[in-house]
Amino acid sequence: MSILHARGVVRAYGHTPALRGVTLNLTEGEIVAVTGPSGCGKSTLLHCMAGILRPDAGEMIYRDQRIDTLSEGERSRLRRTEFGVLFQFGQLVSELTAAENVALPLLLAGTGRRAARTAALSWLDRLGVADLADQRPGEMSGGQQQRCALARTLVTEPRVLFCDEPTGALDSLTGEQVLSHLVRVARQQRTTVLLVTHDAQVAGYADREVALRDGQVDSSGFGVEVAGR
Amino acid sequence: MSTPYVLMGLLAGGPKHGYDLKRAHDARLPRAKPLAFGQVYATLGRLARDGLVTPAGQDQDAGPERTSYTLTDTGRTALTTWLATVEPPLPHLTSVLLAKVVVSLLVTDISQARSYLVTQRAAHMARLRELTALKADPDATLSDVIAADYGIAHLDADLRWLQTTLSRVADLNKEIAR
Known about the structure:
By secondary structure, chain A is of the alpha/beta class. Chain A folds into 2 domains: 1-82 and 158-221, 3-Layer(aba) Sandwich (Rossmann fold), CATH 3.40.50; 92-157. Chain A has helices spanning 42-49, 72-81, 98-108, 113-126, 142-154, 172-189, 200-203, and strands at residues 2-13, 16-27, 31-35, 57-62, 65-66, 83-86, 160-164, 192-196, 208-213, 216-217. In chain A, helix 3 packs parallel to helix 5, helix 4 (113-126) crosses helix 5 and helix 5 (142-154) packs parallel to helix 6. The model of chain B has no long low-confidence stretch (mean pLDDT 87). By secondary structure, chain B is mostly helical. Chain B contains 7 helices and 3 strands, in the order H-E-H-H-E-E-H-H-H-H. In chain B, strand 2 and strand 3 form a beta hairpin. Chain B is elongated, with a radius of gyration of 23 Å. Chain B has helices at residues 3-11, 18-28, 37-49, 73-84, 96-106, 110-136, 142-177; strands at residues 16-17, 53-59, 66-71. At the A-B interface, helix 6 and helix 7 of A face helix 5, helix 6 and helix 7 of B.
């Protein structure tokens, strides 16, 4: 069943086109990797699908509802309740402990302090970093920070998780641990995942791959012109 | 061929008979080309003939009598020498993949070349996903993970090389078209 559908999405930065009519359908519970070389538009697509950017043209449909026409406030609410976004650098709040960071989205949504902390501890535990609950980001390794950031993204139990190069700043073994946790939890929760990466090994965790080239879906998968001579 | 040395390596920990060797081989190299029982016994025969292993007794656990083998001093020296010998890194830049891609880029039928390259890439990605799933399986053994890592790293290298090759060809085509 379709959960999020980008239809003919166009987006430019000034006069520079980033997306030129991208159509992509995500079904519930699937993990899709969006790949392609730098500048192909994959991060812009993620931002549009996550409701962070508004497309210049085309439609974005989440569970039969147009979301590209929603106000900034409505899209922001959607991001807090239905979507989760994880970037390359987890962007934890440096003054807060891991547990406080993970509890933050729940507190902002109105959950009581005690319940938010309990949920935060539970998610830290599921991601294998329960022992870091009272540590601040500066006291953690990059991999530990990213697992805490993942816990913070998952604590609201999003239906769609957007990950932009989530392991791009990590060494391969640490990145593998983060991805393994991400995929395991997504499968358990039936969370749909859009995984933006330029790395084939990361794309290997997805159920399928969609490659972009110059702002369009590239059916060859290569992201470059495939021509014989 | 590394099979004789792999078998000698498995005997380095103590005597084993052919059946145990076959099981140990499959456990340590779970994704390797299958090793037939016949090949184990034939290899043991050759190793014994060359004085690298020697019979170490007979076992009979509710079944046929089986001969255990142990590594001789000569065998241990041969194993040490093999382990200390550096493998020549890519002495010849040849592979079927390399040859096919080069020929694809030479042929005049662009759609045929494109079709091959796209299908080959999809096959590589499918295998990459398969090995990634195998590695991520909570029941995977360390040997499974090590074997999957080996395959994934090689597939990834092939994919990067394919991508770079096509980028180079695309750049060249643009230059010629100018």
